[in-house]
């Protein structure tokens, strides 16, 4: 996948900066991690999202961003986050290995790179309630979620273009061998696995924000609601929205 080439290019630059004595809090390194964790997406790239207005207004008023858990049950699609229910056999103990725990604490928010919304978008995302569509950029979103004050910022947040696949190929991902192939130190391949969607939705041109709540210690001021179906992350809304349209 080309996006992993972009990932490796940014990772290589991080190594170079490390050899030069730059630490993970150095501004140059932070910017490279943002590029790495967005798989090379241009920071100036415009992204858009439709929110139910009541939820949006509450997030702005509270200085939080709310994300639902990336779960097939919450998203009403058995192929969402396909690795979440994968288990395997432990030949040592004879027990069951729960591989799904590696991705089960991803929370996700769907954005689109499509500049103009389709009429169906409003219905799909508003659920017949008053809604607002906002526009911002990749850079502005990551600037607010990947903060050098958090020493683990490079592991928590990911932003990636969704990969659209045939449903049979997504179903084939649900096996231990695929999970093991996605296990590596950065967490990038596990994040990418949670951004695989069936081809029927390819017209959405989705860019998916992922937040890994399994990383400890957790951020201060994080809030969970509705039995951890949603997570609320502290978020600075000032100067974030470039354009706002209500409907």
**Can you count the helices?**
9
- Broad structural category: alpha+beta
Terminal-residue CA separation: 37 Å
Topology as a string of helices (H) and strands (E): HHEHEEEEHEHHEEHHHEEEEE
Global outline = globular
Enumerate the spans where pLDDT stays under 50 for 5 or more consecutive residues: none
Instruction: Report the mean per-residue pLDDT as an integer.
Output: 95
Q: How many β-strand runs?
A: 13
Helix content: 25-40%
Q: What oligomeric state best describes the polypeptide chains here?
A: single chain
Strand content: 25-35%
Rg result: 18 Å
What strand line-up does the widest sheet have?
1-6-13
Give a short account of the largest sheet: 3 strands, antiparallel
Can you walk through the features of this model?
- This protein has 247 residues and is α+β, with helices and mostly antiparallel strands.
- The chain has helices at residues 2-19, 27-37, 53-62, 119-126, 138-145, 153-156, 167-172, 176-181, 188-193; strands spanning 46-52, 64-68, 87-89, 96-98, 106-112, 131-137, 157-161, 163-165, 196-198, 206-212, 223-225, 230-234, 243-246.
- The chain has a 3-stranded antiparallel beta sheet. A 3-stranded antiparallel beta sheet has the order 2-12-11.
- A hairpin with a 4-residue loop joins strand 11 and strand 12.
- Helix 1 packs antiparallel against helix 2.
- The protein is globular, with a radius of gyration of 18 Å.
- 31% of the residues are buried.
């Amino acid at each position: 996948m080309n996006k992993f080439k972009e990932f490796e290019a940014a990772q290589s630059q991080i190594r170079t900066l490390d050899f030069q004595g730059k630490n993970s809090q150095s501004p140059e390194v932070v910017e490279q991690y943002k590029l790495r964790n967005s798989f090379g997406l241009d920071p100036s790239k415009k992204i858009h999202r439709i929110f139910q207005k009541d939820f949006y207004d509450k997030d702005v008023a509270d200085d939080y961003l709310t994300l639902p858990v990336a779960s097939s049950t919450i998203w009403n699609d058995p192929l969402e986050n396909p690795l979440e229910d994968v288990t395997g056999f432990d030949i040592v103990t004879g027990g069951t290995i729960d591989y799904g725990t590696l991705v089960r604490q991803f929370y996700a928010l769907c954005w689109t790179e499509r500049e103009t919304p389709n009429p169906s978008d409003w219905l799909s995302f508003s659920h017949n309630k008053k809604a607002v569509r906002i526009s911002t950029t990749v850079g502005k979103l990551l600037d607010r979620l990947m903060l050098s004050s958090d020493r683990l910022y490079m592991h928590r947040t990911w932003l990636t273009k969704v990969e659209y696949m045939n449903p049979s190929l997504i179903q084939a991902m649900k096996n231990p061998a695929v999970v093991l192939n996605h296990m590596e130190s950065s967490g990038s391949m596990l994040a990418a696995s949670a951004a695989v969607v069936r081809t029927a939705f390819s017209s959405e041109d989705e860019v998916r924000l992922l937040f890994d709540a399994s990383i400890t210690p957790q951020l201060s001021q994080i809030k969970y609601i509705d039995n951890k179906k949603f997570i609320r992350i502290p978020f600075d809304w000032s100067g974030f929205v470039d354009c706002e349209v209500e409907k």
